[in-house]
Amino acid sequence: MRLPQYTLFRLLQLIPLVLVVIVINFVLIQLAPGDVAITLAGEDADPQYMEHIRRQYGLDSPVPVQLLRYLGQVIRGDLGASFRSREPVLHELMSRIPATLLLVVTSLIIAVFVGTWLGTLAARRPGSFFDIAANTVSIALYSVPLFWLGLMLILVFGVKLGWLPISGMRKIAGPREGIGYYLDVLKHMVLPVLTLSVAYMGQYVRLARSSVESVMNEDYITTVRAVGFPKRIIFMRYALRNALLPVVTVFGLQIGLALTGAVLTETVFTWPGLGRLVYEGILARDTPLIMGSYILMSVCVAIASLLTDLCYALLDPRVKL
Amino acid sequence: MSVANTDQDRYLLELKDLRKEYQLRVGLFGQLVGRASPKVRAVDGINLKIRPGEVLALVGESGSGKTTLGKLTCLLERPTAGSIVLDGRDVTNIRGRELKRFRREVQMIFQNPYESLDRRYTIGATVMEPLALHRIGTLAERKERAIEALAQVELRPAERYFDRYPQDLSGGQRQRVAIARALVLEPRLIVADEPVSMLDVSIRSGIMKLMEDLRVSRGISYLYVTHDLAVARYVSDRMAVMYLGKVVEEGPTEELVRAAAHPYTRLLLAAVPGEGGANRKRVVVKGDIESSRSVTGGCRFRSRCPLAQEVCKEREPALAEVSPDRWAACHFASEVVARPGLDPADRREGMRA
Amino acid sequence: MTLASRTLGERLAGFFRHKAAVAGAVVLFVFVALALLAPVLPIASPEAMDYMPYQPPSKEHWMGTDNFGRDVFARVVWGARLALQVAIVSAGLSTLLGVILGSLAGYYGGWLDSFLSRTFDIFLLIPTFFLVILVVALFGSGIYLIMIAIAVSTWPRSARIVRAEVLSVKSRAFVQATLAAGANHLQALVNHVIPNSLAPAITNATILMGLAILTEAGLSFLGLGDPNSVSWGRMIFDAQRQLRLAPWLAIFPGMAMFLLVAALNFIGDGVTGALTPAGAGRGRRVPGLPGFGGERSSRQGGTQEASPADGAQVLEEGGDAAPRTMLEIEDLRVYYRLEKDWLRAVDGVTLRVPKGGSLGIVGESGSGKSTMGLALMGILPTNARVVSGRVTFDGKEIVAPGKSDYTGIRWTRLSMVFQSAMNALNPVMTVGRQLSDAYRLYKPRASESEVKGRIEELFDLVGIPISRIDSYPHELSGGMRQRGMIVFALLLGPDLVIADEPTTALDVLVQDQILAEIDELRRIMNLSLILVSHDIATVAETCDRIAVMYAGQIVEQGPTKDVLERPRHPYTSAMISALPTLTGPRRTLEALPGEPFAAIGETVGCRFAPRCRFATDLCRTTAPTESVGPGGRSSLCHYPEAVEEASLTARVPA
User: Which residue among C172, C196, C544 places its CB closest to the CB of B120?
Assistant: First the structure.
């Protein structure tokens, strides 16, 4: 199966899946107790106003009609407007995505590289103190409650030591552009990125370690040992590529989930990201915002998973699309 | 065995025009693009008969379909077409209670002794399981029968083996347990799928002898599937050679081995390393069994056959009687069979003319 | 005698070896005890606002008091109750659903499986934490709803794990066997498939428990938790405001959570270790020994284990000056370190291979032939050790205890042909690339055309179409791959090649082709050959000398024809009589009692005595020494002549 056809096919598969996601979420929201109109108009609004609100937002129609109307909108690329801010949903989302991406992608990359590196080091010294320590520490790392870790870091570095800022993405009164701006953001990034990457790292250490170990036990490694390649070359050229395949898969998936990953961290550090926005939207029953963000996230995950599969197929000739 | 037993026309098992096709799965994409789903004909029109107390060896290389045929015979898989007749009853499509009854008459021994016993069950539990499944006897009676079966396969003292686990046993012992499990229902036919090929050489003969003893004492028939011709010769009364899903030759073992009527059989026989030393003339045959799959029209073997002629491309040879009770699917069978065969004294083979 | 059984006791021992897992179990026990006993413990009530607020930790209040004057320690203990409840119920529900649906989907396939796969895909797309947030925010934050929501968002993962395991288990022979015995599919599924598929689900369950605790805490931290329960997450949420002034309010609940979740994860890790079958780890593997991780897939059967060629034999009557010795092995001993003892895989082997000679080594499992091959090539696994003896190649010592010096020898003068199982060649590189890499390793300045030319020359010689240079190993048939391995071995024009079961996994006709080609190559290139095999007939045809190996020792060696016609060791004679033949009378085969033997620790007397029909008391008490006979033969038996006699009389036709 050739690449373009496969890609197209996968993209087409996306549509029914996203559709199901939309329907599920829409139905869930509708099923929930309570009345969206009350949330919008306020508890004490008079009934006439409520009726007006209902008609304005189309809440007086039956659910299936609302759903279809919504679907029609989405197909035209219109995600509606947020109930709270009245801004277009797409615009709201887009304004917050960069902050989240900055945080999550940076953390993931650090976690992947450092974690994989440590894992492979451990695999090459099986049973050594380093190996056992690495295993123990990585399990501990992914057991840590993320938000608690963030708070602890804030406590140590922000409060007690005062080295680093503890909230927001930049100083309110700080520079808005230029080197000063970037440095400011960087300073603000340190703690949240540290928190997130610690949380991600543990699994990569373990994954890399077990993957490398199993590859080193394969028959073809024995063959090249017999031929006489030096250990370093065996590892770099023969073992590593095969061992990295599982890491690539997991990494791809997590990048796809990047937009969804940081709500807790954003809350702790008051980082103006997408996760926080969606969370507030959920609390406020801001239906268009919730639906829009779910659609966006689902599409991202699907595309990321497609790219991961393509990457995998490129790396491993045994895989036939 | 070469004289037709007219008084014993009753066969224990008959396979009539048996076929088994597998569909290779084509993903959703392929279906959209209109790709036809390829079929693999693992078993392609097999006719075989086994008499009570007889051992029929099914010989072939990998890809010949012999293992599939073994599974069809004990109804672990269902044929796509054709029928299976046990003792005069058509059992091809039976289910439920009838199928259970069938299972008491036809049993199977598997190739891998390290995989055919569930590691979580004791030996005793494993051997008793068939009895429990068929609700035969009380727990005490089942235990007794199981112990008896273990003793019969020479695992003594049987009581000690009863509570052990497969991990405590060697390969040969595990295979004996598998035989005991097959015996405990007192079947009339046992399908043995390469029962000794994963065992050490010094152990094999013990298992083969055991199977033979059981045949004599209990009158069990065997369908013995193997790739090893020497083993096939030793254990069987009759032999059928398979190639890509079809039987290419069939007949009494000794006759067949001494003077085969199909080129493929001759090549197989010639390829067996002997203890005669380096004098054996090597066989030269092209390609491997996989390359034959793409051959269309005529005889499937012709791309590798040293005797291939025009007619082989035009017409597929049918399985025909070359001499009483000797069958072969080759246009030149009568010539092949007439060539000098395996000389007991030395190992030169008449194929290498 | 079994070396591989894992009784319950051994499994527990395996678990306990993971000290962290034990520590985890202890911590978990403490938490569970505290949680269960909380109502009766002499601690404050978690809701009682009786104390001075904002007290730092002290003797009266181990963890201080919070903003409402409640004792923090008591609240932490009660928080454990909630956490454990959430963990057990969510993980339990999720695993239960996962096991049921996953095993049904995996076993029966069909529409259920398709449906389940689609569900997996959908759940993958939905951000599950947000789903839980959504459900909780919309439908209220009762603790039961939270537990169910967590279970619902995680069951696809459990199901997928179980499904994968079921798929692999259901095709295994013991499942087929129970069906053949009369079980219906449901019985097979419940009695055999599911019990054998649970291991990864159990590990997953421990991970899920930790995840559930963290998720609930996260929800509480976001303000969505059950307001009526004491939750660690909620405590931390409340503590945020006072982080500077009363940091202990945030530290202790979080620490408790960390400890509990870490304990669960360490236990999960230990469980995986205990459930992994013996021999999987590198430490315990012994190549070629079943039960020690040494099984290799061999399609047409046959046990693996290449015995390295034992020894080379000096050609006897030749008249002229004896040709020079290519390889000499002197009293080589290679042992494997097991937990409590040494496995004596190679135990005092002395052999010689002359230039141009061919030696076959025959042995069954446990004979040590695999290990010999690895020892000769200097690629023993890390748990093996050359304990004594040495190996010399063309006068140069290459192997000795603690020494492995192959400079100038490795692959350029001494190489190996491996059994061409699917993974003997790197699956992600083309054959040509691997070959040229190897070539350039020793001839770094070779030009592109030189390398290509050499490869093409060899491909031609062994009969591989040149186009296959750019194929991947999985695109080649078994026979082609084996030829590829041969080309690999011959690449640099060695003087001696060790062939380790080169044809075992191949079809009969292809086997014959390959052996013929090896023979031919040997003559063309004047190679010395050591052929290791379990199949005496193969060796008999290809080698001019044969050495029979049993339990780490050479029990007999000599010119092939002589040895096979007049064996001077009961094992050799038994092996020969145990082989069915195509020619000759259809005689009864000799059955050898007992099992092949691998020596662990000290042995008394002759190693073959327990199975030998000639064995006497002497055999059982005293190990035999090598008796050298005429014609370059030797045998490790007390009664070689008697054996020779017996084998001759047996041959006399009745």
Answer: C196
B33 in contact with chain A, both atoms CB, cutoff 8 A: yes
Residue C52 · residue C76 · CB < 8 Å: no
Domain end point (choices A42, A75, A108): A75
CA C445/CA C99 separation, integer angstroms: 59
Q: How many pairs of residues across A and B have Cβ atoms under 8 Å apart?
A: 8
Give the chain B residue whose CA is nearest to the CA of C584. Answer: B344
Residue span of the structural domain in which A199 resides: 90-315
> pLDDT by residue (tens digit) across C599-610?
888 888 999 998
| Chain A contact for B29 (CB, 8 A cutoff) | yes
Boundary of a domain, candidates A46, A75, A104: A75
CA dist C650 and A159 (Å) reads 95
Same domain? A7 vs A139: no
Residue C45 has pLDDT above 60, yes or no: yes
Total domains, chain A: 2
Summarize the confidence of residues C571-579 as an average pLDDT.
89
Tens-place pLDDT, residues A77-109 = 777 777 777 788 888 888 888 888 889 999 999
Q: Which of residues 276-295 of B touch A (CB under 8 A)?
A: none
- Give per-residue pLDDT as tens, A268-308: 888 888 888 888 888 777 878 888 888 888 888 888 888 88
In terms of domains, do A123 and A164 share one?
Answer: yes
- A37 located within any domain: yes
How far apart CA B210 and CA B275 sit, in angstroms, is: 25
Q: pTM score > 0.90 for this model?
A: no
Q: Which residue of A has its CA nearest to C240?
A: A151
Pinpoint the alpha helices (H) of chain B.
28-33, 66-73, 96-105, 123-133, 139-152, 158-162, 171-183, 201-218, 229-235, 253-258, 263-271, 310-314, 333-338
Chains with 3 or more CB pairs under 8 A to chain B: A, C
DSSP-derived secondary structure for A108-149: HHHHHHHHHHHHHHHHHSTTSHHHHHHHHHHHHHHHS-HHHH
Taking the CA of residue B62 and the nearest CA in chain A, the distance in Å comes to 22
Residue B2: its pLDDT value, please? 40
Asked if residue A82 belongs to a domain, the reply is no
Q: Which residues of B touch C588 (CB under 8 A)?
A: 209
- ipTM of this complex: 0.88
Q: Determine, yes or no, domain membership for A320.
A: no
A80 assigned to some structural domain: no
Q: Do B185 and C182 count as a contact with CB atoms less than 8 A apart?
A: yes
Closest Cα in chain B to C510 = B288
> Who among C133, C218, C377 is closest to A282 (CB)?
C133
B-chain residue closest to A320, CA distance? B27
Residue C391 φ/ψ, nearest 5 degrees: -125, 130
> Which of B172, B178, B342 lies closest to C582 in CB terms?
B342
Query: How far is the first Cα of chain C from the last one, in angstroms, to the nearest whole number?
Result: 40
CATH code for position A206: 1.10.3720.10
Kindly report the average pLDDT of chain C as a whole number.
84
